Structures are given as C-alpha cells and as structure tokens.
Amino acid sequence: MSVRLKVIKYKTRKFSGAGRLELCSSLLEGGITPSIGLLRVVKQFVHIPVYAMIRPRGGDFLYSDREVEVMKVDIELMKSHGADGLVLGTLTEDGRIDTELCVELLSVCRPLPVTFHRAFDMVCDPVVALETLISLGFERVLTSGCDISALEGLPLIKRMVEQAKGRIAVMPGGGISERNLQRILEGSGAQEFHCSARCNRDSNMKFRNPHVSMGASLSAPEYGLKVADVAKVRALNAIAKNTL
C-alpha cells in the first residue's frame, strides 16, 4: 500500500500499516516536489520507505530545459536527504513517454528505485507506453487506467497487469477508498495500491479574515486543511490484507 502524504499527521512509525509513502506538496495540483524540510522531518518519524515526488510544477508533463535542470537538482537533493525512492514522469508533446528525458533522469536517480506517476494516464497509447516503461527500468507505474478514477479505469488496469506479467508493478491509484478498494484489487489483479486516505480538518485559527485568500479562486479553503487519516489507512490496509 502506498499512501500519498502532504500534511503530516500520524501516530505510529509504520503509519498504520502503509508499506510506503509518496511524499509531495500541493495535492490540489496533483502533487509537486516537497521541500527538503518536509522530507527530513518525515524521515525522522516513519520507518517505511519514503518516495519523493519530482515534479517542478502542476499542469502538463512536457518540461522545458530549465524545468529539467530543476528536476535534476531536486533529485540530487532528495537523494542526499534520505529519500528511499523517487516518483516522476515526462511526456512528449504527442502524448508518448519521453524516453530520452527519462533516461537522463533515471541516470541521476540511481541507485534509487523510481515510480512513473500518473503522467501515464495522459499517454496516447497505454500499451506501447507500458512496454516503454518496462524497457527503461521503472520499478512501478501509478495509474487510474487513463480514466477519471481507478474504478472507472479498472478494465485497462486489468489489461496492464496482464501485459506486465510481473516485469513492472502496476499500481492502481485515483479515487480509491474503503468502498471500492476490494473491487479494484479483485478486478485488476494488482498486488498494491495507492491512495491519499485524506480527510478534512478545520483550522485552529480563532481570528479569521473572510475577505482574503492566499490562493486563486479554485484554491483550498483558507481555514481548512487536508490531512492523512490514520483510521482510513488502517481500514484500507485491512481490506487489502483480506483481499490479496
């Protein structure tokens, strides 16, 4: 089980049964590179692998030369500050895996394992893209089956698992909850899954200015927080253990 963690809120060093953390910032943008401070503090508190997201911005996965420079520096920094693995993805303008750039980035990532994130869900041909990732040496691919959620994309995820034949881990992610996890695991044949397991928490601020927001109109509420829910992680882990 992989849990996407943005705001730290946990009680045990094993994070209630999660097998791995994907560490990122700004979940509203789908996750971007976390700060070094966040990585270092998380590493102090958990004893499971922490995979750091390498994504310099939200939006598409077609990166400029300067953005690639940022990604390479971020990879080196995450490695030197204790990341156990990395999560990244790059595409060409025509919706294919950017093989040349992936080779460059993977060489910087070594010897850490690397997951190809949900940039995969934006490819034009998932069958070809999966073979490309296998040939490049990615450890796993995170996908919602090129659909709005893993449940809707279940048929493709199942085909991907069958196509992979153990050469790469196919990890369903996107809208996974206690209500649909069993169906997704049984229907896909996947052996692991990814979720944010988050819940809403109200701010502790007593004085609140309702006229000012620090973000754009589509940003999160100023006095609301998204946190990883330990109870949800436990429940999802129990479902997975009973299913797999």
Descriptive key words:
244 residues, alpha/beta, TIM Barrel, 10 strands
Q: Which SSEs are present, and which pair or pack?
A:
Layout: E1 2-5, E2 20-23, H1 36-45, E3 50-53, H2 65-80, E4 85-88, H3 99-109, E5 114-116, H4 126-136, E6 140-143, H5 154-164, E7 169-172, H6 181-188, E8 194-195, E9 198-202, E10 224-228, H7 230-243
Parallel strand pairs: 1-2, 1-8, 2-3, 3-4, 4-5, 5-6, 6-7
Antiparallel strand pairs: 9-10
Subunit structure: Homotetramer.
Subcellular location: Cytoplasm; Nucleus
Function: May play a role in copper homeostasis. Can bind one Cu(1+) per subunit.
Describe the structure.
It comes from Paramormyrops kingsleyae. The chain is α/β, with parallel strands linked by helices and 244 residues long. The protein has a single domain, classed as Copper homeostasis (CutC) domain (TIM Barrel), CATH 3.20.20. It is 33% helix and 16% strand. It has 7 helices and 10 strands. The chain has helices at residues 36-45, 65-80, 99-109, 126-136, 154-164, 181-188, 230-243; strands spanning 2-5, 20-23, 50-53, 85-88, 114-116, 140-143, 169-172, 194-195, 198-202, 224-228. The strands form 2 sheets. The protein has an 8-stranded parallel β-sheet with strand order 7-6-5-4-3-2-1-8. Helix 2 (65-80) runs parallel beside helix 3 and helix 6 runs parallel beside helix 7 (230-243). Mean pLDDT is 90; it is low at 5-13.
